[in-house]
Design a protein that fits this description.
about 140 residues, alpha+beta, Nuclear Transport Factor 2, Chain: A, 6 strands, globular, DUF4348 domain-containing protein, DUF4348
Length: about 140
């Protein structure tokens, strides 16, 4: 009987969370992202190398290719708009989950469609995966 009550208690307290854990990150994501988006040195220190980048194959757009990027070949990611170039207009959409944050760069009148996935490690946020669905 004790075991049944214990199982009921576990289900009532944990089953409705969908298996996600509460983030223990001490750093506020909004403050972190502001610095990540504007400081290339800070950005490089907050990438979990080697990082996987997934992208569409040019010949077969439904096939996803993958590329492992190490620290030496990493290029800074720009989130600020360049006003000289009108073809790179995009919006940034941030979707926060309990254990991760997805930052979407979505093009406005262009095919830009990139997702940057962050998780909390060592009490700070780190970029852990890039998914580029740009056509």
């Amino acid at each position: 009987m004790k075991h049944i009550l214990f199982l009921v208690f576990i289900c009532l307290t944990g089953c409705g969370r969908g298996g996600k854990i509460q983030s223990t990150c001490k750093e506020d994501f909004d403050s972190f992202f502001e610095k990540f988006a504007t400081d290339s040195l800070f950005q490089k220190k907050h990438v979990d190398f080697p990082i996987m980048k997934y992208y569409s194959d040019e010949d077969f757009p439904l096939d996803m290719m993958e590329n492992m990027i190490d620290e030496e070949s990493f290029e800074a990611i720009y989130f600020q708009h360049n006003t000289r170039r009108t073809n790179d207009t995009y919006e940034i959409i941030i979707k926060k989950e309990t254990d991760s944050v997805s930052c979407y760069k979505r093009g406005i009148n262009n095919p830009i469609n990139i997702e940057y996935i962050f998780t909390c490690k060592k009490n700070s946020w780190f970029l852990v995966k890039i998914v580029d669905n740009t056509d």
